[in-house]
């Protein structure tokens, strides 16, 4: 009778009729309360129904009847594993295997448990034993591959996933995990193909759709990524992480207002989503809503200590609106954190606040540690001695941007008999006159806006570039990962970023002796190349608007003495502003003409002026207009007052080009010395000062001796056609000589070394 009940119950269980089967097993137990088979079978039925406590009790009771039942030990361990009691589960699998050493399921589960426990080497050994006995079980190959991924061995893991897929080609999970291995190997295009195989098997799987979107972002296919996120979020609209990642894709795709909405959606779903809050703050910053950005950054800083770079952006937001209430404390706190190796501020943002070149080097090194690609050593490349030198200029700023306006003429003046030029344009393509002009100056103009760092580096290596020139550095749109992959044997930091990259992947930095005195070379990871006059390229064809503005047009008093500073407002610091207000108090008819970055900055600067006994009406703000119009209107000012520790760069050469004198202060860092370099190259080095006192005295003297100031202006206009600063052809010859010397060192097998270029005729 018992045997027939057990057979009937087994048949019902095999047919999925678990309730009917359970009823028969209970009948058996009424007859034989210690019947092993009934106890064990009822335990399994409870397990399948999710009643883990009942399942564990019944199977444990069965084991008291038959402690040698390997399957019961295995099933009890599986229940314990599911309940999170991992050590008990491991002991159970071990007991099952002692009874039945060839128990494949128990060994497989033990391997999975060891993987879950983080005991990866033991898990791998268990998987190896399994594949040695049966190499055709896809789950084992998959588990072995997952273990190898945990051991950071993605190449071997990929082989494992491929073996598993031979036996289970319809497993979407395997195609997904294969894609993860390919991503770890930095092969995103292949990862995308693998993930698309998974999606073909499970087209409505939102997780796979999101992973596909993530890979499209890596491949810089932002439009496709945005569409993919839209599709995934239509199925999974309450995923805050997905909304955050969608926002990132929208940022990269140039759709910032929509990105802000995506980040806000993520925050509504999860108010504690710190990354989304930080990203929303970043968007507000980029939209120039700096006061709002500061509030958001403050919330992030309060929520999570040491969020990378957030505190730095908070301080930058305050500087953008000229909120100086905690500036000195901020400066000291940043320097302390940098010296501890903390990621508190990005190198570009640090320039405006830092007064120590050693701290700038530390900041750059910290930032470069976050780059995913390892810095590769230079590759030997031996071109023929009489072959043209192949130069690639790589920039995110081949658009209406100061770097483009400065260097366009250099591209046009390059000697095509000696140099073959390639441009690599990063960032979103922006149709403009300056981009068209730059494109026309190159033999090869590559739009790499949708290419990965790896693809760009491989492309440059394939065409055997000799010198790769980074014109972006750490500024907006920077791609240091390209240079980390060593597309060229010689790599140069030039013009775009006024400081060191802090990494051995850049061999040289173009400078001059005003910017980097020899004793300061230790603050640069690059070898310093000194040009004879100034490091700054200039275009003697820079466009100046034909329209002649009057002071009335610009909102300036007709008879006032007009001090001006057209630097970005964040460069203005309290000590410099003190000097400016002292000048205004000394010259009753003077006004200060400033660029208006944002209304909050204007309000704060007027308040700061009033606090220094200067009427707020004496600060006049100029709206942003086209570069050509802006250069033209500068003739309306009498004297340009520079900032420190971040001096005028392109802004200084613009002023000098139209004959506007600039009084500058020689500071302790590269960005604090650029204007001084330009003044000397323009033949007016006496406008460079070395202290706040001498800066004030020089500006006051010129304001009070206007005949001498008029002569100085005439000198600048006369010098424009012959001074080194605006001699584009001469500058290009000097730069080319620097490139030649770099190539000589390389071809002779010598390491990069500092050197100076002799002035060309």
Explained architecture:
The protein is of the alpha/beta class and 761 residues long. The chain folds into four domains: 2-205, Alpha Horseshoe (Serine Threonine Protein Phosphatase 5, Tetratricopeptide repeat); 240-368, Serine Threonine Protein Phosphatase 5, Tetratricopeptide repeat (Alpha Horseshoe), CATH 1.25.40.10; 389-530, Rossmann fold, CATH 3.40.50; 551-726, Glycogen Phosphorylase B (Rossmann fold), CATH 3.40.50.2000. The protein has 35 helices and 14 strands. It has an eight-stranded parallel β-sheet with strand order 3-2-1-4-5-6-7-14, with helices on one face. A six-stranded parallel β-sheet has the order 10-9-8-11-12-13, sandwiched between helices. Helix 2 packs antiparallel against helix 3, helix 15 (240-252) runs antiparallel to helix 16 (256-269) and helix 15 runs parallel beside helix 17 (274-286). It is elongated and about 125 Å long. It starts with a helix and ends in a 5-residue tail after the last strand. The mean pLDDT is 91.
What is the strand tally?
14
Could you give a short account of the major beta sheet?
8 strands, parallel
Rg, Å, rounded: 34 Å
Number of domains: 4
Side-by-side strand order of the widest sheet = 3-2-1-4-5-6-7-14
Number of helices: 35
What structural class do you assign from the helix and strand content? Answer: alpha/beta
Into which percentage range does the β-strand content fall?
A: 5-15%
Q: Could you say what the CATH topology of the largest domain is called?
A: Serine Threonine Protein Phosphatase 5, Tetratricopeptide repeat
What are the low-pLDDT stretches, counting only 5+ consecutive residues below 50? none
What is the C-level CATH assignment of the largest domain? Mainly Alpha
Question: Distance between termini?
Answer: 114 Å
Helix content: 40-55%
